[in-house]
Amino acid sequence: MSPVRHVFLETLAGIRPLLASLEVGMRWDEPSALENFTVRALVGHLVRAAITVDSYLNLPEPAGEKGISAASYFANLDLDVSSSLSVGVRARGEEQAAGGQEALVAQLDRVTARLAESLLREPDDRLVAVAGDMVMRLDEYLVTRLVELTIHADDLALSVGLDYPSLPPEALDITLTTLLDIARHRRGDLAVLRVLSRRERAEAGILPVF
Question: What's the CATH fold of domain 3-165?
Fold first, then answer.
């Protein structure tokens, strides 16, 4: 199993105690720290990071495609809070959480167990067809899921007054590297270089990327 697959499974295990926490259950129906998300929708969205991998692996593998990068995936999405994509993401999070906290955590457990087996079997060059008719290598898609998990774990922990969960350091490494790649993809290398190193020449709007 490739390193990113191990990190993905370890990250799912790392966020589970947060999703199952009493604090999340107590604030289930309250607004979260993430704009327009309830706590329950945010939990649903986090669990969907695993569910989508499981779902895509059950679809036929696309043929004749090279596959785009994780940075290109995010750069191709309209992530404005009012976009149809963002509205749909929130709606799917709410729908996923409709059965309540306990049922959602149980679903995460079942999906994680399936993925522990399927990710071991899939070849290194496995392609998946993902949202927006994009095609990616499986491991590159897992990078996008790690970005989602690590960022939204912070949103959820902040929403309910808990500390950031204990996640693999490699998960944060992958996320930070990908965020930098997204900024370079969207803004260009020189603009990113300046915003990271020269405040007197840094352009507004380069960071954050979301």
Answer: Four Helix Bundle (Hemerythrin (Met), subunit A) (1.20.120)
